[in-house]
């Protein structure tokens, strides 16, 4: 991975999002309590900020961003399948495991989802327990609930 790191910030309804990119694409979105220092800028970040604004305004349902997945091959396989879960829909860890071709590995899928560095873009908030319960979210359960309600509300308008 290239050493030059670019950072930008976007103030969302969930608080500050730190967007991190390299010359290969967007590599991370981190929830932050406050805006940090911008470290250089890059067109990937400008595009991500614009698409996130459209998402939060209810006008974007699919992201069209160049991302760089830095997980293990196993994690990246899970992320690519997770990215296929449509806006406003949810999927269980078990169903995601089946989608990824590893039907008996729901727990391992959950561990991979937990390490997702691109929340919202790779929609880990759309994964729930097989019993329908909301289970964990890196940004906190309140953010997961907000995102799910946001997507459901946009679809019912």
Describe the model.
By secondary structure, this protein is of the alpha+beta class. Helices cover 36% and strands 17% of the residues. The chain has 5 helices and 5 strands; from the N terminus they run βββααβααβα. The strands form 2 sheets. Strands 1-2-3 form a 3-stranded antiparallel sheet, with helices on one face. Strand 2 and strand 3 form a beta hairpin.
Query: Could you say which overall geometry the principal axes of the C-alpha atoms support?
Result: globular
Oligomer type: single chain
Q: What value does the average pLDDT take?
A: 91
Please count the beta strands (DSSP E, at least 2 residues each): 5
The helix-strand sequence is: EEEHHEHHEH
Kindly report the spatial arrangement of strands forming the biggest sheet.
1-2-3
Structural class: alpha+beta
The number of helices is 5
Task: Indicate the percent of residues in helices.
Answer: 25-40%
Ranges where pLDDT stays below 50 over 5 or more residues in a row are none
Straight-line distance between termini = 42 Å
The portion of residues forming beta strands comes to: 15-25%
The major pleated sheet works out as: 3 strands, antiparallel
């Amino acid at each position: 991975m290239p050493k030059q790191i670019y950072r930008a910030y976007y103030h969302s309804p969930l608080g500050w999002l730190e967007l991190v990119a390299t010359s290969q694409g967007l590599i991370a979105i981190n929830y932050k309590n406050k805006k940090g220092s911008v470290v250089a800028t890059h067109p990937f970040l400008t595009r991500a900020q614009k698409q996130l604004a459209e998402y939060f305004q209810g006008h974007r349902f699919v992201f069209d961003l160049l991302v760089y997945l830095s997980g293990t091959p196993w994690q990246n396989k899970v992320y690519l399948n997770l990215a296929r879960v449509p806006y406003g829909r949810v999927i269980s860890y078990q169903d995601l495991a089946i989608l990824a071709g590893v039907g008996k590995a729901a727990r391992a899928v959950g561990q991979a989802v937990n390490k997702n560095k691109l929340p919202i873009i790779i929609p880990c908030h759309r994964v729930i327990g097989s019993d329908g319960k909301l289970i964990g979210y890196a940004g906190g359960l309140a953010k997961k609930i907000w995102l799910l309600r946001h997507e459901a509300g946009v679809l019912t308008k």
